Amino acid sequence: VFQKWVNREISNFDYLIQLNTMAGRTYNDLAQYPVFPWILRDYTSEELDLNNPAVFRDLSKPIGVVNEKNAKTVKEKYNFEDPLGMIDKFHYGTHYSNAAGVMHYLIRAEPFTTLHIQLQSGRFDCADRQFHSIPATWQALMDNPNDVKELIPEFFYFPEFLENQNGFNLGQLQMSKEVVNDVVLPKWAHSPEDFIYKHRKALESEYVSAHLHEWIDLIFGYKQRGPAAVEALNVFY
């Protein structure tokens, strides 16, 4: 598979799906759901210029420290001494992929809606914690080193999860009183289909093809554990 990918006989999308499968990740288990990278960092421009490297996320860094400002906090957390010596050191107390995160992204699509409601003891979580906007989700990641959610494959092929087609009442945001309905898209996307098309195009772009292996090292490769993980600020609880 690796050789095929290097020879560009299979797409970046296909290669990531196959890596996830080989790593034991599957759509049948929310706790081991396939994980995909955030690949862009420009969610505000009117047009998305895939020839400009500045629109892409730095794939060599874990999502928690893509914003340099968070590195200090993350290092401090790692250097904190557990007085009882019971807990192994870590940079992040949460994970880049978990069941709650999958439900968070897919809340508008069944069976994930029902699973989310079960998780929240029979009702929707408060509106401010819902997945309501792609630009706002990215901004929150940049501002908060404790939020380290990567993406799921649906961001590259499934426009329906961005629409509230079932008309669920997801509440309204506290500050702006905005009703949470369809997911708010980046300015450069004119519809959920347009977002998926451009996002998939970004995944297959020259820039991502040249740098994707750096992210793979963090998630599936030699930077998952040990000294390389510590150095890369990539140790999870």
UniProtKB/TrEMBL annotation:
What would be an example GO MF term here?
protein kinase binding
Q: Does the keyword Membrane apply?
A: no
Gene Ontology cellular component terms for the protein in this record: cytosol; membrane
Q: Which CDD domains match?
A: Beach (cd06071)
Q: Which residues form the BEACH domain?
A: 1-237
Tell me the InterPro entries matching this sequence: BEACH_dom (IPR000409), BEACH_dom_sf (IPR036372), BEACH_Domain (IPR050865)
Q: Mind telling me which SMART domains this protein's record contains? A: Beach (SM01026)
Alphabetical UniProt keywords: WD repeat
The record, for Pfam families, names:
Beach (PF02138)
PANTHER family on file: BEIGE/BEACH-RELATED, NEUROBEACHIN-LIKE PROTEIN 1
Q: Output this protein's name.
A: NBEL1 protein
Recorded source organism is Alaudala cheleensis
